[in-house]
Amino acid sequence: MGKYQIAVLSGDYIGPEIMKAGLKVLKIVSENKNFNYDIKKLPFGGDAIDKIGEPLPQETLDVCKNSDAILLAAIGGPKWDHAPVRPETGLLTIRKSLGLFANVRPTNISSVMAAYSPIKINDPIDFVIVRELTSGIYFGHPRSQTDYEAIDTMRYNADEIRRVAKIAFEMAMERKKHVTLVDKANVLATSKLWRQIVGKMAKDYPEIKYDTSYVDAAAMKIIHDPSQFDVILTENLFGDILSDEAAQITGSLGTIPSMSKGQMGPALYEPIHGSAPDIAGLGITDPISMIKSVAMMLENSFNRSDLAQEIYLAIDRSINEEITTPDLGGTSKTEQVTAEIVRAIKESR
Amino acid sequence: MGKYQIAVLSGDYIGPEIMKAGLKVLKIVSENKNFNYDIKKLPFGGDAIDKIGEPLPQETLDVCKNSDAILLAAIGGPKWDHAPVRPETGLLTIRKSLGLFANVRPTNISSVMAAYSPIKINDPIDFVIVRELTSGIYFGHPRSQTDYEAIDTMRYNADEIRRVAKIAFEMAMERKKHVTLVDKANVLATSKLWRQIVGKMAKDYPEIKYDTSYVDAAAMKIIHDPSQFDVILTENLFGDILSDEAAQITGSLGTIPSMSKGQMGPALYEPIHGSAPDIAGLGITDPISMIKSVAMMLENSFNRSDLAQEIYLAIDRSINEEITTPDLGGTSKTEQVTAEIVRAIKESR
Ligand SMILES: CC(C)[C@H](C(=O)O)[C@@H](O)C(=O)O
Ligand SMILES: CC(C)[C@H](C(=O)O)[C@@H](O)C(=O)O
């Protein structure tokens, strides 16, 4: 059995702090488990702007392309607000260059976590958002700006819609067999195309309950009745907004991982939150989002749900024992939470 | 003193039910108060499609243009899903034709209402969203759709941004002196233009605290810390999504009015919710959103905050006495709630 190559992009502000935690857990969980890997740390985001002058250096991209999976912590921050190229551009470029057209963000609130939610929760919540990630208004042309006028273009074609829709339907087959397409088909031409293509595909999945929702209505349902969802499928910009809203109802942004993937090639795993400049360096960042990103990678890129499960159980245990960072109401440090999760993994063996 | 002309568009499904309630309250509150008006009822939306073949007949538009204010209840519904022109098109056209470029939606949660909120509320919430309403991706060209590709265009110019921004700043001067521009300036060219124009205008209002937020972050803040907002200023599509999200955190969608206005000419007042086909005809629709729309009209188009205040107090009283429709946990009918509000107005005189 060869060694897997994992590209590691620690990024900016709290990025390196949580990456350290994620790699520690990866090391422990894979010990004596026939999972061998090498990591390669690469500059990315603001860090790469400072060192090399661009957010996504060629070498970083090349190594990512040749890896089996990519771990990313978080990038960006006020330091580069006036840089000629922003760190975020690196993120958009890596998504596009690696063809990571599907972004998958789980929202689930276990009974342990319900207390942290800002909403009053009655039923268990467990849905995922499948967001199109490499097209739409993020990438469409023409795009231009003068002092008087600016233009962005939201553009989709049938192939772009079909490939991400397929991921949503396949995912729903393994879950609660329900797909909700979110769009603005009462206004947008692109949304009408989404409805047409996805509606047709739904016929190939007769077991799946398929429905649609306008994006404004969906923004309401995520708050007042989130338990109705299983898989939400949506375009890039709507997915950006709704997935952050959905993350917020868990009340624990610091615990949510995500996966971005394409048809083939490496997938990228990262927390859904940003680089949190306000708490960088204080050692109090919640490492769980990064540690769960590692688990998601083990499960999805390496087919090792056994190892992922060990991580999830250890995390639940650390929360149950209230060894948590301030975002979850605790007083522990990043390193203490990480150590507790490591301990729980070791103990369970 | 002449008579004001008020155009009345009752629309579809629950539309006529709540409009009846609104007009009843308008009649009572203006009795012996030196406020004279005539109403003119006009077909609009699905109703107009059925009667005349188009959602916004020329006569409806003409009368609206020559009125002092417009009351609209709600339009649309599944009945016209496959109509050649949708009811919603009428809404977009009337906004554009009357130059109603600013949509103002209040979100406030009084202590009486906090119990109905799906979120856990600590601090009082009182903000408004000022949404640009006649440009952006709703109206931009090119717009096209084939079976393979579709395109929408988000387009803004400096004048469109300036005029709506001015409304937001003026409004903030009368409120808590805080404006938050919501955009996606880390990705969109149009957002960069908004930042440029609005940032410059902020300098003309030194008393106002001015800040910015990305739309995805704003979608989170509306849930986890809504009391930080005073006036949120944003473009058309973001405003659509965020204002519905904001409405939802009040837990009482059935109670929220809105105003759409331009530089001059009549303003339009309407509930923020839709035509609720599922409860149409049951007589249980909450009339408060429509009644508050009437109050908002009296205050803003006719400078009669005295009458508006009478209405608001009467509404608070009916809620306090738990004479409410099912959306607020009550068992009263639309007509009973309306009668109670009428009674409270009369009694207070
Ligand atoms: C940083 C930004 C460009 C990015 C996006 O909008 O896609 C982020 O919000 C995300 O969701 O990953
Ligand atoms: C019906 C629809 C076209 C409309 C909009 O998106 O503007 C509605 O959602 C609203 O907010 O008034």
Structural notes for this entry:
- The structure is a homodimer of 349-residue chains.
- Chain A is α/β, with parallel strands linked by helices.
- The first copy, chain A, folds into 2 domains: 183 residues, Isopropylmalate Dehydrogenase, CATH 3.40.718; 152 residues, Isopropylmalate Dehydrogenase (3-Layer(aba) Sandwich), CATH 3.40.718.10.
- Helices cover 41% and strands 22% of the residues of chain A.
- A 10-stranded mixed sheet of chain A has the order 2-1-3-12-11-4-5-10-8-9, sandwiched between helices.
- In chain A, strand 6 and strand 7 form a beta hairpin.
- In chain A, helix 1 runs parallel beside helix 12, helix 10 runs antiparallel to helix 11 and helix 11 crosses helix 12.
- The longest helix of chain A has 16 residues.
- The first copy, chain A, is globular, with a radius of gyration of 20 Å.
- The two termini of chain A are 23 Å apart.
- The mean pLDDT of chain A is 95.
- Chains A and B meet through strand 6, strand 7, helix 7, helix 8 and helix 9 of A and strand 6, strand 7, helix 6, helix 7 and helix 8 of B.
- Bound molecules: 3-isopropylmalic acid (IPM) (2 copies).
